[in-house]
Backbone:
């Protein structure tokens, strides 16, 4: 059995692999194995790996299964104690693995964790996908230490403490293999986006914890597959956010939240329309219809694990705090409002 499998899921990312794979290989301990799982790339990624990185184990999946399906199929083939799900557009730093492995080896209640995610372009700024650990509010809107909606903070050492978070980013996710399998792996209906939040929620329903360890630092390019203004990404974000609520909340909590989210998501769609973003408007409305059509199935799927209180959830509205209250920094949110849910 491998102690640690560093698994990079690739889809037409030859340029990213060429640029960033050397840093992963250079900064990986002897007990780790670097693996690239290829989602049916057409850009010559596999031949490049075979010619220039023969030490890398390549798993050819044959077609694009998305983030969720690709990782599920790859991890089924790997016998390891721990996995790192690592984006191809990630530059790692020396010693990045040690703090995270020490955390997980020292506490078997920790199912997953992440390093501090910094921007590759602006190296003193947190990166959108994860920053210094992920949270949600009671309506399911995700945000991070260092990033609320589109506002990214400069890193001045304000979020250096190792702490329990609600979710850890799928861009660089350390996960205990047994817990991953016991939780039921990634939900393939998500395809991509917010699947790691759903997985983290299921870990918590198993009584496990999720952490951020900022002692480890990586640098993420971000937006390598779908840019932020892509209607497909808009659709997946809105649909999947509602899916994770439908799957993980008990009925008495879900339905009041669902009604509020229908109102807020339709307001978001209207905002897109007024800003001339017609394709994004259509994407949100399609997402709402998709959720309504699949609601019963997702609710049924969520019963595979017992419902239980999970921690930490922001019990106020992050939408209200950001758009009406003008709160742009995580440190402005009062700690007393982070409770079990």
Residues:
């Amino acid at each position: 059995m491998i102690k640690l499998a560093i698994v990079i899921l690739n889809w037409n990312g030859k340029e990213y692999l060429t640029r960033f794979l050397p840093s992963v290989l250079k900064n990986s301990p002897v007990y780790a194995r670097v693996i690239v799982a290829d989602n049916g790339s057409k850009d010559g990624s596999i031949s490049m790996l075979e010619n220039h990185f023969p030490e890398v184990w390549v798993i050819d999946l044959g077609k694009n299964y998305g983030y969720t399906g690709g990782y599920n199929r790859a991890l089924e083939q790997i016998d390891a104690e721990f996995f790192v799900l690592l984006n191809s557009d990630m530059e790692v730093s020396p010693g990045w693995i040690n703090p995270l492995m020490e955390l997980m080896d020292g506490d078997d209640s920790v199912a997953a964790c992440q390093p501090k995610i910094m921007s590759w372009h602006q190296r003193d700024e947190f990166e959108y996908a994860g920053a210094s650990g992920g949270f949600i509010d009671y309506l399911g809107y995700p945000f991070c230490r260092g990033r609320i909606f589109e506002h990214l903070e400069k890193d001045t050492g304000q979020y250096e403490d190792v702490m329990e978070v609600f979710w850890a980013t799928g861009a660089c996710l350390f996960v205990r293999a047994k817990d991953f399998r016991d939780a039921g792996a990634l939900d393939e209906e998500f395809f991509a986006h917010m699947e790691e939040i759903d997985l983290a929620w299921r870990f918590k329903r198993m009584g496990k914890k999720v952490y951020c360890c900022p002692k480890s630092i990586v640098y993420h390019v971000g937006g390598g597959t779908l840019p932020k203004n892509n209607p497909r990404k808009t659709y997946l974000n809105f649909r999947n956010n509602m899916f994770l609520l439908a799957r993980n909340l008990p009925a008495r909590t879900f339905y009041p939240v669902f009604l509020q989210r229908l109102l807020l998501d339709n307001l978001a769609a209207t905002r897109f329309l007024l800003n001339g973003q017609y394709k994004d408007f259509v994407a949100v409305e399609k997402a709402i219809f998709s959720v309504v059509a699949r609601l019963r199935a997702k609710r049924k799927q969520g019963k595979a694990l017992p419902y239980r209180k999970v921690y930490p959830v922001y019990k106020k509205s992050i939408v209200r705090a950001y758009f009406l209250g003008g709160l742009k920094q995580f440190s402005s949110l009062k700690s007393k409002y982070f409770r079990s849910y």
User: Anything to note?
Assistant: The radius of gyration is 19 Å.
